[in-house]
Structure formats: structure tokens, C-alpha cells
Amino acid sequence: MAPYNTFPTIQIAKLSKQSSTLCKPAPYSTDPEAIVEHEGCDYTQKITVEMAQNGTAPRKIRIYTDGIYDLFHQGHARQMMQAKNIFPNSEVYLIIGACNDELTHTMKGRTVMTDVERYEAIRHCRYVDEIIRDAPWKITDEFMTEHKIDFVAQDSTPYVSEDCDDIYKEIKEKGYFVATERTEGISTSGLVARLVKDYDMYVRRNLARGYSAKELNVSFLSEKKFRLQNKIDEIKHKGRKVKGDFIQKWEEKSNEFVRAFLMLFGRENLLEKIWDKSKGGIREVISLHPKNKKNGMICDNNGTDLQPPKKIQRTKHCSITSDEDDEELNLAQSGFPSITFTLPSNNFI
User: Which residue range or ranges hold the Cytidyltransferase-like domain (predicted)?
Assistant: First the structure.
């Protein structure tokens, strides 16, 4: 690795230049900064591909790439990055051309963004040094001379137009074309397809954000349908929120219940106190064991005589209430209410 003090001077100058351009958007070709750059370029010194690749070019290499750049995305930025770094051993001045709305709508179709919006999106890409507004659909020798363009950068796939098979065919034949790679999986057409696919969802979103049906070009019935769907979704959301709040509160209450239960029935709290109080009752029951009897009397632990419980006398009464014999069992002389029942057949006598 080379020491810091031997770092190439040209690389330091390039880094300093790039840092200054990142502080503001790129100029238009009609701005003073771009005019000064254009006039300082000696276009009589022709640059070949070999010179650009070897880093022997006597001046900056002016590379041009063009497009519509509608819904500016990472595929556009990546293509510009490739063009900016197509000759890593030389200093590249990248010029971007964008067609206006009138030409674009005629040759390709409608755009989502206006030409002014597309220009401004390009200006704020870090790889761009200059922007040409109202760029032509097909590059001519006169256009390249006017803007002192050395090479044109585009992907190698032929770009078919109404009047030709490839609008870059002549540039390729003259040796002014350098190829970049297309970014797969992203394109303006793909983004538009996503919007069309989820049209209802985006209309509902914008209606909810305050856009009018007229601004969205939505009919009266469609507007009512979309607003009803938004209201239903709002009710569903509130229902889920209430359910979530109920579950959260239930969990909090259950935690409080568990904590209270543990405080009441823990090892050293209420259960232990209940056990201590019940010990006396258990001792009293144990004292009624037969071994504590004394001369037919029941004694407690202290030897005090206790009166035995009264015996319950069972008497049998037979009565005839019909042609069959009935038997009545009566608990008498017990101090309890008399209970009488009838046996339905003689089999139990």
C-alpha cells in the first residue's frame, strides 16, 4: 500500500472536485458554471477509447447519456454511476440529456412526472455534472459538436423507434458508443404496473389523506365505495385495538391477582396463621379418642369428665294404610324431628 504522501495528485484533485459538487445540484447547460466548463474544453483534441482507458487523455472526457427518467429510481442512478466510472483512469465529465414533455408524449407516451420535475430529479443525482434540457430524441453529429461530447453511454440493447431499429446505431458505427449494463428488476414501466395493480388501495389512501375525487379523477359512486371501504377498515382497526387493550388489561389484572394470592397464601402469611389457629381444634378432636375414657366417662386431656352423648333409640312401627302391609321407621326420643317413610312391598319386611 502506497504511503499517504505519495497518493496521486490527480486522485486528490478528483476527490476535492467531487466533494464540492455534492454540496449543490448539478447545473443546467445554460448556467454560467456549465458555460465556463464548456468553453474551457479544447474539443480539437480528439479523445480515443484507448486514451480514455489508459488515462492518457489531455483533458476531461465528456460523456453523454440521455433518457426520459420518469419516476427517477435506482436503475437510472446506477446507469449514471456506470457512465461516470466507465474510464476509471481518466477524469470524466458526465452530461445528462432529458427530453421535454412534448417530444416524450409524442414518441413514447405520457409520463407521471412533468419535464421540470424530471430535470430536478436528475440534478440531485451525485454522479451528474451537467444537464441538457429539451434533449433530442436521436443524437446527431451537430448535437455532439455543439456540446463537445466525446462518447455516448447507454446499455447495449438496441433502442427501437418508429423510424429505425436502433437510434444509437450511427453512434456505435462511428466508435463513440460505450456500453453500460441495465439494472434488472426495476424500471419505470414496472413501477407504473404496480400502481395500476393496486389502484384501489392507492385511491383509498389518497382519499383518506384529503384528496378530492376530482383530483383523483374518480366518479361519484367509486368515491362512495372507496370511502365506505375506508370506514370499514377503520372500524376493524378500532376493534383490533379494543381487543388488544382488553387482553392487556386482563393480563395486568391477572398479574395483580397472582401477586395478591401469593401475598395471602404464601409460606409465611395467611396459611401459616390459619394452621396455627387450627391446632387447638385438632388437639380437641384427638382428646376424644377411646383411650381417654375413664369409668365409662369421656375425659379430655386434663382428665375432666365429659358427659357421653345421648343414645338415639330406634323404634319400629307397622301400620296398614291399604291392602298391603307398610313399614314405618321412626326416630323417636332423639330430640330430632321425626322422620317416617313407607316401604312399598313386603319383600323388605
Answer: 64-191
Of the listed ranges 238-247, 292-301, 321-330, the one predicted with least confidence: 321-330
Q: What is the pLDDT of residues 187-232, one digit of tens each?
A: 999 999 998 898 888 888 888 888 888 888 888 777 777 777 777 7
- Listed as own residue / partner, the contacts of 183-191 with beta carbons closer than 8 Å and 24 or more positions apart are 183/74, 183/75, 183/78, 183/79, 186/73, 186/74, 186/75, 187/73, 187/75, 188/68, 188/70, 188/71, 188/73, 188/112, 191/71, 191/73
Q: Could you give the 3-state DSSP secondary structure of residue 283?
A: helix
In the β-sheet with 177-180, what is the strand arrangement from edge to edge? 130-132, 92-98, 61-67, 151-155, 177-180
**The whole model's pTM is what?**
0.61
Read off the amino acid at residue 12: I
Q: Residue 270's pLDDT is what?
A: 60
Return the DSSP state at 341. -
Q: Can you list the pairs that 155-158 forms with residues at least 24 positions away whose Cβ atoms lie under 8 Å? A: 155/79, 155/179, 155/180, 155/181, 155/182, 157/182
Residues 6+ apart with CB under 8 A from 69: 76, 96, 98, 118, 121, 122
